[in-house]
Specification:
Blueprint lengths: L1 E5 L2 E4 L4 E8 L7 E7 L6 E7 L4 E3 L7 E6 L4 E6 L8 E7 L3 E2 L3 E6 L1
Parallel strand pairs: 2-11
Antiparallel strand pairs: 1-3, 3-8, 4-5, 4-9, 5-6, 7-8, 9-10, 9-11
Length: 111
């Protein structure tokens, strides 16, 4: 199983970015996909999760600003990030419940 993340970049505070993560290989039809992030000097933080049935959960810090979604036909998970804040600056990683991680994509929010 491989996860390929994309969509990071540099954006001003208040802006938006959309991350994508495509899974390939032997993917179980029932799974959970998630986005984590690690900011400089901080521990890895769970950002959002989504089940294959579409149930979602969010960290309090991103609730009402970020939206996780998925396309099961494409084995792809998305993270729409709006109203970005400098505190959202981090490397974002996608994860699948079979125990695999994507390579990480840098998100930098300037003030």
């Amino acid at each position: 199983v491989q996860l390929q993340a994309s969509g990071g970049g540099l954006v001003q505070a208040g802006g938006s970015l959309r991350l994508s993560c495509a899974a390939s290989g032997r993917i179980f039809s029932s799974n959970i996909m998630a986005w984590y992030r690690r900011a400089p000097g901080k521990q890895r933080e769970l950002v959002a999760t989504i089940t294959s049935a579409g149930s979602t959960n969010y960290a309090d810090s991103v609730k009402d600003r970020f939206t996780i979604s998925r396309d099961n036909a494409k084995n792809t998970v998305y993270l729409q990030m709006n109203s970005l804040e400098p505190e959202d600056t981090a490397v974002y990683y996608c994860w699948i419940s079979q125990g695999y991680w994507g390579q990480g994509t840098q998100v930098t929010v300037s003030s």
